[in-house]
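Operator note (shift B, R.M.): manual run for 4Fe-4S domain-containing protein requested after the automated queue skipped it. Running by hand, logging everything below so the morning shift can see what happened. Input copied straight from the record, untouched. If output looks odd, do not overwrite the archive copy; leave it for review.
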Amino acid sequence: MNEREFADEAIKICAFIMAESARTAPKSKGIDDLEIIYIGREKIEEIARKMEEFAEEDKDFLRDANSIRKARGILVIGVRGDKPIGVNCGACGFKSCSEFERAKREERKFTGPNCAFKLIDLGIALGSAVKVSAILGVDTRIMYRAALAIKELGIMKKDVLFAIPIASEGKNPFFDRQR
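Run finished. Output pasted below as returned.
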């Protein structure tokens, strides 16, 4: 087989290994509130079209929609941030974790407020996943705009999420993008 003939399967295998690296990344107090999903090529056009709907607010949605069309799959990592870890650090903007828990949560692009430690856990998981992608030699980029479309489509409903489109091309299609 020619490498291009099994590239979709190779990307899926890479995504699965990336997901396991994200899952096993350190979590605050060992509490895992992550959700990790893989989206295959068949849904990418739907996500790109949803991204284009947001372009009136931010023209970079068009640029990123065109970028993800070059992906063979998308790994999505999200977190539920409404459960504080109980250290009363104040990073969420509240005096105590119990005050944070009583706060009214609002849906904007993401849902908040969120426990800062849960957001840190998400960042570490994202970093762990893309570290693996670099080791495996696949093209990735962590994307906020694609995640908003995924959330809007109801594919993942976590409070905060990010998408990692994955490709295997001669040049990473997610960088040096046209503005």
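Quick read of the result: Strands lie at 34-40, 73-79, 106-107, 111-112, 139-140, 160-167. The chain has a mean pLDDT of 95.
Leaving this for review. - R.M.
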